């Protein structure tokens, strides 16, 4: 537990950051605070209107902010590749975007939507941006997970969830994958001697579009964290010198223990190999040592 606030973010002048899903919810204040502290920020959003509106909002709040829009649809690997190819430098990647609790749908590439967007899209994005991250000493990858991961199970024979689909269980699986990815990236980077910090967060229950509870939303929002409070775990993970990699940062910025399943090296390794196969992204820069 710490009294750390966004005011404690160090000067980020000269740093380049990407925040996925930065047009709303937790992602918007994450991008805004990074920009307020001097970082150049790409608001990576699938919807150009929403993405540009977020850029304008940040510029209004932080005159002179170095912020721009980048179009990224994590549910489309061609879009992920186009976006990654448009970036020329990077110190910080915040894998924040997410879908949850939806009826069964598929990404452009035919993956179950929650796994495909929350995990495979971010897996591919991180791998494609890895060469840029490795040029930046102390680069960080922050991946937003959730307490929901504790209920997550991965059946490699039913990755498409073509049978037994549940909105919650599919979400839990995708958030488990986020944690397994974070920890495996850290292990692989370390083994390769790469100067890269990989850290996961849990923002806590936050009043965003994600928590879609219809007419009850204004009432329930009173009991939830604000998006600004929800963003603190990402901002802390992204900028605090106390973070060295492999942590799971909770809503009160406490270091939490992921579930036993999330800490399984064997499961993480298998998920990595399967994700590389499905996306065609192989993290070549650190692959040789692994
Ligand atoms: N809110 C909570 O209580 C809570 C708790 C634990 C963890 N989380 C995690 O926090 C993260 C942020 O969620 P949030 O609560 O801020 O929800 P949100 O307001 O719904 O924001 C989610 C963001 O992800 C974007 N997104 C969805 N699918 C995308 C795709 N295919 N490509 C690119 N962007 C996409 C959304 O874009 P659109 O605006 O176009 O839909 C939106 O910008 C998620 O990873 C979520 O799992 C949230």
Automatic annotation (TrEMBL):
The answer to whether the entry has keyword Oxidoreductase is yes
- CDD domains recorded: retinol-DH_like_SDR_c_like (cd05327)
Q: Which Pfam families match?
A: adh_short
**Parts forming coiled coils:** none
Check the record and name the InterPro entries matching this protein: NAD(P)-bd_dom_sf (IPR036291), SDR_fam (IPR002347)
Q: Which UniProt keywords apply?
A: Oxidoreductase
Name of the molecule in the record: Oxidoreductase
Species assigned in the record: Nonomuraea purpurea
């Amino acid at each position: 537990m710490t009294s750390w606030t966004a005011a404690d973010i160090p000067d980020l002048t000269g740093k380049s950051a990407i925040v996925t899903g930065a047009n709303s919810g937790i992602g918007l204040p994450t991008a805004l605070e990074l920009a307020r502290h001097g970082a150049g920020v790409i608001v990576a959003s699938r919807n150009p209107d929403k993405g540009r509106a977020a850029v304008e909002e940040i510029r209004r709040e932080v005159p002179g902010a170095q912020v721009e829009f980048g179009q990224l649809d994590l549910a489309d690997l061609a879009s992920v590749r186009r976006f990654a190819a448009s970036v020329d430098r990077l110190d910080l990647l915040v894998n924040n975007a997410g879908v949850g609790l939806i009826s069964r749908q598929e990404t452009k590439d035919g993956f179950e939507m929650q796994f495909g967007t929350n995990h495979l899209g971010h897996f591919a994005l991180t791998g494609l941006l890895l060469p840029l991250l490795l040029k930046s000493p102390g680069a960080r990858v922050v991946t937003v997970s959730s307490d929901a991961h504790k209920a997550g199970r991965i059946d490699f024979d039913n990755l498409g969830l073509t049978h037994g689909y549940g909105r919650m269980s599919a979400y839990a699986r995708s958030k488990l994958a986020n944690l397994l990815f974070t920890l495996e990236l850290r292990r692989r980077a370390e083994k390769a001697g790469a100067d890269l910090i990989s850290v996961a967060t849990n923002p806590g229950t936050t009043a965003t579009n994600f928590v879609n509870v219809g007419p009850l939303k204004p009432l329930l929002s009173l009991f939830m964290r604000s998006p600004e409070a929800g963003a603190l775990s990402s901002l802390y993970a992204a900028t605090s010198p106390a973070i060295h990699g492999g942590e799971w940062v909770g809503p009160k910025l406490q270091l939490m223990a992921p579930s036993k399943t999330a800490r399984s090296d064997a499961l993480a390794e298998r998920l990595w190999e399967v994700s590389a196969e499905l996306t065609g992204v192989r993290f070549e820069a650190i692959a040789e040592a692994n």
